[in-house]
Amino acid sequence: MLIVLNYWTAFHSTFVLPKSKPTFFRYMMLFSDMGAGGAMYCMLLPCIAALAGGGLYSDEKNSTRLRMVLARAGRRDVLRSSFCAGFVLGGMGGVLPLLLNLVIAVIRQPHMSFIDGVDHIASNPYFSYYPVIQANSWLYPLYKTNQLLMLLVAFLMIFVLSGAYACLAIGASAFIRKRYVEILVPFAVSLLIWLLPAVLPIHVQLVANEFSQVIFLNFSADSGPYGIWGALANVALFLVLSGALYEIELRRDAL
Fold first, then answer.
1. Count of CB atoms situated within 10 Å of the CB of 114
2. H helices within 133-226, ranges in order?
């Protein structure tokens, strides 16, 4: 659904960008100025990752298999394998929509011309283009140096971030009785991070905004110099929360 939405709004949009050098980034989620799928992808990424890899432990717990598996392998090994497999599956699930969208964008516009990051239209409305990535974005030096490397870094970031979301869902599933509710836990935490700056003082709101994936994954906008630190802080927070839930669940055998 995200891919269809982004495709329709990018290639059939009533809003048409001024002509510029051809590049598939114009039609790719997170880089596109026209596609509406990118914003929804950023918001729903925790749910997508948790849906792909966050239910491994829950599936065992809500069936008759967990007791037999725990008797053979022990809770530590079961949790460890669930977290590792969930991290990989969550990462793959988070990256997959963007990867499929990339394939479609490349087929429709098989070019990757460099477009500088200065918003000339802000000072001259008759200029020929908007930037793909603005010059003050943390990602712009990579975009300017090597676009393929920039794509690899973006995909790797999303993979690790999605894996961390899935791990939190797995940790939460140990304490949630109803199935599939754990999918909402990473989304709820990410939503709280996104809304938190609204209650902070004005002078710290701009910095605090950068710690939400809705902001730092929007590569086409001015993500500022804090984007990479926001991503690292996001991953660290979700992994710490996952580790805390892992330790609590692990102690059940000692009680």
1. 11
2. 140-145, 147-173, 184-195, 202-209, 213-216
SS3 180: coil
**Residues ≥6 apart with Cβ < 8 Å to 124:** none
- From start to end of the chain, where are the E strands? none
Distance CA 210, CA 229 (A): 8
- Three-class DSSP category at 67: helix
Strand partners, 23: 112
Q: Residue 250 to residues 74, 174, 191: CA-CA distances in angstroms? A: 10, 10, 28
Band of pLDDT at residue 113, cut at 50, 70 and 90:
confident
Whole-angstrom distance, CA of residue 227 vs CA of residue 103: 25
Residue that is written with structure tokens 């990757």 in the block: 112
Q: What is the DSSP letter of 19?
A: P
Token representation of residue 6: 């982004």
Predicted TM-score of the model (pTM) = 0.88
- In tens, the pLDDT along 24-43 reads 988 889 888 777 888 899 99
Q: What would the mean pLDDT of 191-210 be, rounded to a whole number? A: 75
